[in-house]
Amino acid sequence: MSDFNADTVKTAVSKAVEKTMADMAFIDTMPVSSNTDPAYKPIFYVNVLRPFSGAVALYFTYECKQEIVGNIFGAEFADVPGFRVDDCLLELLNVLAGNIMRNIYGSESIYQLDLPQVLFEEKEINFTGCEVIKQYFNAEGMLFMTKFIRKRQ
Question: What is the CATH number of domain 6-151?
Answer without folding.
Answer: 3.40.1550.10
